[in-house]
Amino acid sequence: NAADQYAAAQSASDALSLFDRQAKDQVKELYQGAMKAPGNNVVLDGRGFANDAITKLDEQYAMSSLPPSVSKIIKDIEKNPQAFTLGKSEELIKILNREYKASIQNGQPSSSTYAIGLVRDVLNNRQDEALQGMVVSGNNNAAQWYQAARTAYKNHAQVVEKIPILKDTLKGVEPDKLFQKHILNGNAAELTETIKELGDIDPTSIYN
Length: 208
Known about the structure:
By secondary structure, the chain is mainly α.
């Protein structure tokens, strides 16, 4: 009956919300461990990052859309590349994430969102290269922590992408609407994937 269906949807929604919270807490703990670990003072290629960012922005005609605060950071790194450490690069990622969210207007990305995204992609690529080298050499604890944090973050993001019902849960969609959209009216492939992932997250949520 309708009450049982709502209860089942509520149970699934609660399980998904808890799973998301735990995954984010794990990522946060790994990043906190990374920031405290030795190795944050390793200098990255600041000038290379600044040049790549400027080149990419110029190629996409996006330089004028970059917020002045982000533009200033890139110029400062270009002038003082030796201060661009592993720890500083992580601080910059946080700034870019914050600016990226702030640039979205009425739920829609703006030209600033696109420009910030370009810089963030360049920085992520630079970090990936540097971290892989440090992890392989095995002498940088911070790099190993950061790598674990980034892997955990990417894995969680992939799970969220695979489960449309989880995406809607995180947007605050009500359980009855979740059930209607994803269970009653969901396609077979999506439903199979949802049940599989729910079973991994909380087996009890699919048997209510």
